[in-house]
Design a protein that fits this description.
Chain lengths: 385, 534
């Protein structure tokens, strides 16, 4: 089975080597990288403009030094050859020259550091923000909570929406391949947005190239950064700190909209959240829970345990698993506390947890017939703590 | 710089089979080796095996990245490969190779009969294959090798399977080996120099290694501490790096990089030393500014202890922290610049010839300087926020570690191989190796600057389609670079050990130093009576 999968992958890989180049007619990604982009992303914030400027400033100084130094070397290589009969000179030190070429680079370095200092100070100034958003890194998705300013109280998870078929070369890749999500972060234009980062499991990093920001999200700690987008549009980034196997698959997408559009979005998002809110005291049927659970499973669990529940590598099969078919307490423990590579899933709602647990206990060859209600998880949370 | 009397020594050292220290034969010669040349050779063999193993992993990585999408490797295995490629190249290839050069050349350059502690030397080598087996064996552990990146950042490294524990023990062993090797080098250099060879007359290679050895002793225990804390966090319920128990994941990074930044100088200072030997030889002119080279090397070593957090600008340091580490890092450009100026001043008005060692040395200066400039760009905190953890950083450190350390070692091999083997290296083949490596190296790593600026994160098994073309170019370059090194092994190294044009005692016209006063190949025992340097 595993061998077969490996073989299929290898074959599709080999085929794609020969077939794909012809179909590679991609356009620039809106708000993401351009095809064969040579420089930083186009600036959307003042900070990114500064970064562009600093980079050009450094490039020019380095290029001048490079040409000067290697010009001298090249001249020496061409003229001071033994084959041209050049006799070696005997000098081998000169304090004056050595002092000069220590002082000059020192002055150049100081000249470089001064403009950079201004930008560093500006980048670190997260005060007086209009809106504060908390970005939480999970293995492997981002969660967002609007904690201050218009939209306060909104929270959602943001998962990559690129289908697995595209990644496995079974479908044509889209233009926004790997840099698209189901729920985008929406912010108003020309407003100072403070982003607080933290993480649930390992270190992640929240980046948007066009904004010129990158901030590690550190479990158990909060850090912050800020941006003030000056152009309406969609801007993208990718997790920038190694966080495990799906590191490449947790992009960041920020939609910058006008003030009016932002207010509309806030209203719509709040309504949507109210409609989705689950009542943990409600009692569901087995079918309802299995149905809901299959969606929770596909969104959160299938990436490691596989859609068929067979697992693979370090990730155990759930199909026929002892814990899944054993006493409920064991599975509560694993779901809420995590185990080895399995993170804690306590951030899911009681209804979602109940649904996914019911689903795993009644799918594939698992037929426990048990129905786990949200109220069971309310109790389990108390017990596990 | 040095005038030498050695006639006395040669008569004694050569072909003297009745001598009490006759050369052992068979496997005992290697397993119980105490001769610095044998141990040095074994270090070099160990390093080249690791170079090819790590290189194979790099090629697998480039194979997967040839095109967007997942074709050959699953991401979890891809991450194991990037991690192990880094660890093997740093701890298995570059570091042991420099220790090999030190073992072979330092006693010859200072006129010592052997290293100070010959048996410890044996032990410090034979620990390495054991550590290597642990490291490679970790691929077979449940869950595979560690996939936390060569930096082994907690808490990701705490999540890994038993492969991580094997890696931790392997690094412990390699650290112990490095410390023993360093003690040996320091004691040898400080105590066993030939009469009259004062420190400030010593060849530059010995100076750079002396400073490197101090760096190693200072920082290897720090690394051992960091990974031991990861080990106890994993198994013994401590929480050094877990916030829930009062620890801090960023603390790991501070400790790691307190080791990690001096480590990059550990891997480049001996390279500076080799280049400082080769350039004067082929310029037929003394090294310009010898004493300022010594001071520059020492200042680089000292500065290397106060710049570590420039690897961590994105962790969110206070503004003063960012500014301090930015300034300190940029300051390193000054002594490094002085070194480059000194090399060029050495070439200036020399009588230059361009044998293979010289080509590699000039190639080194050229590409290393590019890596130095990108280092300066990375040091600027605001720019670094844009390129941290992207392919720009990958390009930068390969320019200084491959085009820096590795190219300098190639230069050193072509330069000293006549002394080791007794035969001159085939010049045509050496030049093919040089030009092929130079072209393919740049083909591989130059496009990565663009990828990084455009935002392609490193350690990604898959990437947006817009990055496809540069990745394809890099993969083709990597294959070419790999094949060039295979050519080096099969068409240059092995044939040179078998035969070729006989090398004279002084293999190169402009060469100076004690190593050129003894016959080529260097006899098993050399300088049993120390030469006198005037």
């Amino acid at each position: 089975m595993k061998l077969q999968r490996t073989l299929t992958l290898c074959t599709s890989g080999l085929l794609s080597l020969f077939l794909n180049p012809m179909s590679y007619a991609y356009d620039d990604m809106p708000g993401g990288p351009a095809v064969r982009q040579l420089n930083f992303a186009a600036p959307v914030t003042k900070i990114m403009e500064d970064i562009h400027w600093l980079h050009w400033f450094m490039m020019i100084i380095c290029a001048v030094i490079f040409v000067a130094v290697f010009g001298v070397m090249l001249y020496s290589i061409l003229k001071h050859r033994k084959s041209l009969g050049h006799k070696p000179a005997s000098f081998h030190e000169s304090t004056t020259v050595e002092i000069i070429w220590t002082i000059i680079p020192l002055l150049i370095v100081i000249g470089m550091a001064l403009p950079a200092t201004k930008t560093v100070v500006a980048m670190k100034d997260t005060t007086n923000a209009d809106i504060t958003i908390k970005a939480i890194g999970y293995q492997w998705k981002w969660g967002y909570e609007y904690i201050k300013g218009e939209g306060e109280g909104i929270n959602f998870l943001s998962t990559m929406s690129t289908p697995r078929e595209q990644i496995n070369n079974l479908e044509e890749k889209s233009n926004t391949y790997l840099m698209e999500v189901d729920n985008e972060v929406v912010v108003p234009v020309n407003k100072k947005i403070r982003v607080i980062t933290t993480a649930d499991d390992v270190i992640h990093a929240w980046t948007v190239q066009g904004f010129g920001i990158k901030q590690d999200a550190i479990p158990g700690f909060v850090r912050d950064t800020w941006f003030k987008a000056e152009k309406i549009g969609t801007y993208r980034g990718q997790c920038s700190e190694l966080c495990g196997k799906e590191h490449a698959f947790m992009p960041i997408v920020v939609k910058v909209v006008s003030d009016a559009d932002y207010s509309t979005w806030v209203q719509a998002k709040k309504k949507e959240m109210a409609a989705l809110a689950d009542d943990p005291s409600k009692t569901y049927t087995l079918e309802e829970l299995k149905d809901r659970g299959s969606k929770v499973y596909a969104a959160n669990c299938a990436v490691c345990h596989q859609p068929n529940g067979k697992g693979g590598g370090a990730f155990p099969a759930l199909d026929g698993d002892k814990v899944v078919n054993g006493p409920k307490e064991g599975q509560y423990q694993v779901l809420l506390k995590g185990r080895n590579a399995m993170p804690s899933w306590a951030r899911l709602s009681d209804t979602e947890l109940a649904a996914v647990m019911t689903f795993t206990r009644n799918s594939w060859s698992n037929h426990t017939g048990e129905v786990i209600q949200p109220s069971d998880f309310v109790a389990a949370r108390a017990a596990v703590k | 710089m040095t005038t030498v009397t050695t006639a006395h020594d040669i008569a004694h050292g050569h072909d003297d089979h009745d001598h009490a220290h006759a050369m052992p034969h068979g496997w005992r010669r290697w397993l119980f080796a105490t001769n610095h040349k044998d141990i040095g050779t074994m270090y070099l063999i160990f390093a080249i095996v690791n170079l090819f193993a790590g290189g194979t992993m790099a090629l697998l990585i480039r194979l997967e990245l040839f095109q967007p999408g997942l074709q050959f490797l699953r991401p979890e295995f891809f991450n194991q490969l990037t991690t192990m490629h880094g660890l093997i190249m740093v701890f298995g290839a570059i570091m042991p190779a420099f220790v090999g050069f030190a073992n072979l050349m330092i006693p010859l350059q200072i006129g010592a009969s052997d290293m100070a502690f010959a048996r410890m030397n044996n032990f410090s080598f034979w620990i390495m294959p054991v550590a290597g087996l642990l490291l490679f064996g970790s691929f077979l552990a449940p869950g595979g090798a560690t996939a936390a990146g060569w930096t082994l950042y907690a808490p990701l490294s705490v999540q890994m399977g038993p492969g991580m524990d094997m890696t931790i023990f392997a690094i412990h062993l390699m650290g112990a080996s490095s410390i023993m090797g360093s003690i040996n080098i320091i004691v040898t250099i400080l105590n066993m120099r030939a009469p009259g060879l004062s420190l400030m007359k010593m060849p530059m290679f010995c100076w750079t290694w002396l400073i490197t050895a101090y760096l190693l002793i200072a920082v290897m225990p720090v690394l051992a501490g960091a990974i031991t804390m990861v080990l106890t966090d994993r198994h013994f319920g401590t929480s050094f790096f877990a916030a829930a128990g009062g620890g801090d994941p960023v603390m790991y990074q501070h400790i790691f990089w307190f080791f990690g930044h001096p480590e990059v100088y550990i891997m480049i200072l001996p390279a500076f030393g080799i280049v400082s030997e080769v350039i004067p030889t082929f310029a037929r002119k003394k090294l310009f500014g010898y004493s300022s080279m010594v001071y520059a090397t020492s200042s680089i070593a000292i500065l290397s202890f106060i710049v570590w957090a420039h690897h961590m600008f994105a962790t969110g340091m206070p503004v003063t922290g960012q500014l301090f580490f930015m300034y300190a890092t940029m300051l390193i450009a000054v002594p490094t610049g002085v070194k480059v100026f000194n090399w060029i001043a050495t070439m200036w008005k020399g009588s230059l010839t361009f044998e293979t060692p010289m080509l590699w040395a000039i190639g080194f200066i050229f590409v290393f300087t590019i890596g130095g400039f990108t280092g300066l760009i990375c040091a600027m905190a605001p720019i670094d926020i844009g390129i941290q953890d992207t392919y720009y950083v990958v390009a930068h450190f390969h320019y200084v570690l491959v085009a820096g350390s590795l190219f300098a070692m190639f230069s050193g091999f072509y330069y000293w191989a006549p002394k080791w083997t007794g035969y001159m290296v085939n010049e045509t083949r050496g030049k093919i190796h040089f030009w092929a490596s130079m072209v393919f190296f740049n083909l591989t790593f130059f496009p990565m600057h663009f990828l990084g600026l455009a935002g392609m994160p490193r350690r990604y098994a898959d990437y947006p389609v817009q990055f496809a073309d540069f990745n394809a170019v890099a993969s083709i370059g990597a294959l070419g670079f790999g094949l060039s090194q295979l050519y080096f092994l099969l068409a240059v190294v092995l044939p040179t050990y078998r035969g070729g044009k006989k090398a004279e005692a002084q293999a190169w016209e402009g060469a100076e130093g004690l190593e050129w006063t003894i016959p080529s190949p260097a006899p098993f025992h050399t300088f049993e009576t120390p030469p006198t340097v005037k």
